[in-house]
Amino acid sequence: MAIVTCPNCGAKNRIDEAKAQSAQPKCGRCGHALDVSATSPSEPLVVTDSTFARDVMGVHGKPILVDCWASWCGPCLAMAPVYDEAAARLGPGIHLAKLDTEAEQAIAARLGIRSIPTLIAYRNGKEIARQSGSIGLPQLLNWIGTHAGAF
């Protein structure tokens, strides 16, 4: 089972991923078609101050890893392709998101971001791990694997 947020009304919908591949699921509130690929994205989801609560804190059952970065940050730019590659390699069990701390300063302050890049892992709306500094793909996959039990 996965929770998919309706892009039309924002309602959370419980989706059986196996059945969703053969039938087009619809939102229980508004009837809008739901994007089944949202249950296992292959690229990081961009979150903002207005979507953070819904797309990170409001997701239950699947862990979410948020990359807090800025466009002027050299280590952030070096880590961006690594993060994208991890998103492509990971299965549907973990979702990856990106938060531009320069554009979204209010949420970055609420999260206590002191250095970038910073990775924050969430499960059921709670922070479970944090890592600051740029890391390579093997280290990132290892970090995710280390915390997979917590995820």
Q: With helices defined by DSSP (H or I, 4 residues minimum), what is the helix count?
A: 5
Q: Which outline best applies?
A: globular
Extended strand count: 7
Order of strands, main sheet, comes to: 3-5-4-6-7
**CATH architectural designation of the largest domain:** 3-Layer(aba) Sandwich
The share of residues in helices is 25-40%
Residue share in β-strands: 15-25%
Q: Roughly what is the average pLDDT, rounded to an integer?
A: 85
Major sheet summary line: 5 strands, mixed
Structure overview:
By secondary structure, this protein is α/β, with parallel strands linked by helices. It has two domains: 1-39, SH3 type barrels (Roll), CATH 2.30.30; 41-146, Glutaredoxin. Helices cover 28% and strands 24% of the residues. It contains five helices and seven strands, in the order E-E-H-E-H-E-H-E-H-E-E-H. The protein has helices at residues 17-20, 52-57, 74-89, 105-110, 137-146, and strands at 2-5, 12-15, 45-47, 64-69, 95-100, 118-123, 126-132. It has a five-stranded mixed β-sheet. Strands 1-2 form a two-stranded antiparallel sheet. The longest helix is centred in the middle third of the chain and has 16 residues, at 74-89. It is globular. The mean pLDDT is 85.
